[in-house]
Batch of 4 targets.
Target 1
Amino acid sequence: MVNPACISNNMAGNCVCCESSSNCLHSPASNCTSALQQLSKRLLSLLLTAGVLLGLRLWMLRGSSPAFSDQDNPASFSPHLITRVLTFCYLPALNFWLLLCPWQLSHDWQMGTVPLVNSFADSRNLASLVFYTTLAMIVCRALQTSKVGGYDGGRVTRMGLALLVLPFLPATNIFFRVGFVLAERILYIPR
């Protein structure tokens, strides 16, 4: 029977589960409490730092959001929903291609340097389809991969995907309008 006072924490590696408290070499409850306190301190400092940075940004912008023009990001100002959706679906595929093959870079991707995707007949939709299909297959494979010989390939793949996708999401125009069509700086600068 596992002692309920023993809490396993495999990520930190300093909490040990044991069958009885007399067999414990470490004090699991104190190790886990210490690890949780350290985690709480880190999270609190991250939240405070983020709050200070957001407050500083709002102060610099005098409480208003930044104003962008149709020259900065033509897709977000398109009057046609289908054009916005198809273009915004294509841009991550183009970003991924530039990450893999950076042969065509620009200091300023605005004012039509990436033409809008106006219809389903546009051949660039094929790139979007291939990109999202491949991404879905990688995610499915990462979720199904099991531990083999002490190596958890799925966990490594999931962490890699998280490090690539999550920091990129704010630049995709999904949640809010951004002031650029494409920017290599969001691909190559560690976030």
Target 2
Amino acid sequence: MVATTAEGTAASPSRPSQPAQPAQPAQPSQASEPSEKAEKAETPRAPAQGRTRRTRRRRRIKIALAGTVLTLAAAAGGGYLWLDATSDVHDVGQADCAAVTPAVVATPAGRAGAEDHAAVCGRLRELTGAWARGDATAFGAQFTQDATCTTYVGTHYRGRRDIAEAHRALFDGFLKDTRLADSFLDIRFYGPDTAVVTTRGDTYTGSPKKPADLSKTQTYTLVRQSGHDWRIAAFHNTQRQRVMERISFLLSPDTKPEAEK
């Protein structure tokens, strides 16, 4: 018998429900396979590319630094050459000691005369001659027994014997066959028995150096021994630093000596 609904309509007989089909797994798209392979292939190269960029960056920095250093070095070298080329002195003195007019200061003991001027110049001429001959004994004899001698490197000798023996070693060593060049800046007498002589000087071989090229400033203090016998009681030698002197005059012009203005 067919069952009816409340409205009187016949209801169709119920059918058993169909079991649900299991979901099929999604198949990978063939189109995505090449891109995934490409990504996998590119992944190992990324660190290498980073290293390459860093290497190039470091190389550019090194090149820039090297260029800066070379530029600064060239500027410094050019500046040094300019300073050296413009550091000549104006007060070069006179090559002949006798041509210098001495300043004579009288004291209660008296004053020096023309013959004393000649004797002082003669003593310094003997000193130069002994050096040219490489005669250390004669060189030392131009000094007093208790004389002092200070070299431009700061070595300080005491006494005639000390001075002579040191110069004996020098004349047999790196000063062998050299000569002395002098240019006299001034001569001052204080009373009858003391003289101070300031020179520009240097050693040389071959042709004598020009006064402007002499690299040392020297001070001799001479005393009368007896009569007109004058000897060197003290000698002080100073190396002139051309470039440093020029820099000091540029930075502080008031330090320039009157003779150089």
Target 3
Amino acid sequence: MDQPLTQDEDHRIWCPNLKGEFATASANEDIRSKETKVIWHKVLWRAHIHPSTTANAWKLMRNCATTQEKLQRIGVQLVPRCEICKKGVENLNHLLWHCPFARGNCGNGFQVSSDSESASPV
């Protein structure tokens, strides 16, 4: 029973690649989560916008930017205080709408409703 079924050597076959060979690009494509594109996809992902700016805007729009409040929720021990103004809890709502630094530098191009955390252009 120690005899192999054939005399040929075993070899690996990478199914996501048509040639059966492993490639980093095909692995990356295989593990990437596929989601439907959002309405603002074409506005944000453009050649003339720097990729880091686009990535940051995407994180903000998808509510997946790392804040101290989120880090504390997953168990990181820290005080979730805004490092800019030292007053509010550092979350996206504070950083974008309520932090005095953001309000002073970004102007008042949006009107924020206090009963719902939505913004509408002025």
Target 4
Amino acid sequence: MIILKLALIVLPPAILLWFIIKNKDRIKLELENFKHINNIENIFYSTCFAFIGFNIINSLTSQYFGTATVISLPVNIPVLYIYSVTISPIIEEYICRGIIFKKLSSKFSFRLSALLSSIVFAIPHFNLSGFIGYVFVGFIWCWYYQKSNNLLIPIFSHALFNFTTILIMSLKG
């Protein structure tokens, strides 16, 4: 059990470090392209659409699947905040948008590519009642990624989405 806990703490930052080292040129280019004011607007709008849409979809589907909640983890663990707001968005967006969506969109339509990569995004959230909501959120982030051609838009939007969710969970107790 101790090894599993240690792996959960050490493995995500190690993956993130590997990602940064492997993609330093791409990251530098993304940061240079990020300076435009439209990117801040894209982050704001994509976060708002994702959060509002996720909650609307979950309220509509809760009568069929039960109340949708974010995976129930104790909100008093600092590692949860750090992981959910920094590491998780980078890794998930790089895999789901930067690799899967990008490869699929070169061969298929936007809708199919976004749908498939969003399903891959939703599966590891281990939440059947929120599955459709997570697919919707993934679809929004695919759209903003394609629109901006900048992976930092969905990464920052994802981080804000997680931050807002954790903040609300913390305030509820």
